[in-house]
């Protein structure tokens, strides 16, 4: 599993570089390095059996292919993203909104986009069908307890009485919202496809009630990096990135060493 994470992380770096080059944005190489070495939480999730790196690589790859009008391949990677993590459905929503926006601009449907929506939609239906075959409940995903952390109102993460918050030390969440919001804004000004996905995902993030917003926001990292691409052309930013390697390493060691869960009975998991 760790090998898959490492390979997916490398693939993500290549995709970010190719996206920057394709869109003629600046500092593609440094954006890839920032993805590999600078984003703090990425150091941890790619070092354990976490699906985030694979999900992000599939999502970013789908966006890149969609932008290059390789719609069938974009649909394939998008479908795999849906099968990897449930937020993959936001990619489907992004493509649907993009289709609507383009129609409002041109008064014409882009017919090649419809198969993307159909393939990804059928993947989602097929996944729920699999749940039905295994559990007898088509909506089993929504009946798995309190692992769905979306709320009807935004910013419920700042309610420390919420089951998955449990803390009033939440200043870092404010900074994540600010940094992610700015990155999405700049990405949206540069490109509708990447920016639209960033906007859809960022909006959903505001409704997540969970202390670990830093992990839930990880799929936004490629969008935020591309949004801030000009900043990475500055020498002082590059120097700071290099200097931050040591504290990032120490942060990761501390996080991975302490973020553990004791399991008394491994039987149900085997």
Automatic annotation (TrEMBL):
It comes from the Bacteria. Keywords: Membrane, Transmembrane, Transmembrane helix. The chain crosses the membrane at residues 6-23, 43-66, 72-101, 113-133, 163-185, 192-210, 239-257. This is Glycosyltransferase RgtA/B/C/D-like domain-containing protein. It comes from Candidatus Amesbacteria bacterium RIFOXYB1_FULL_44_23.
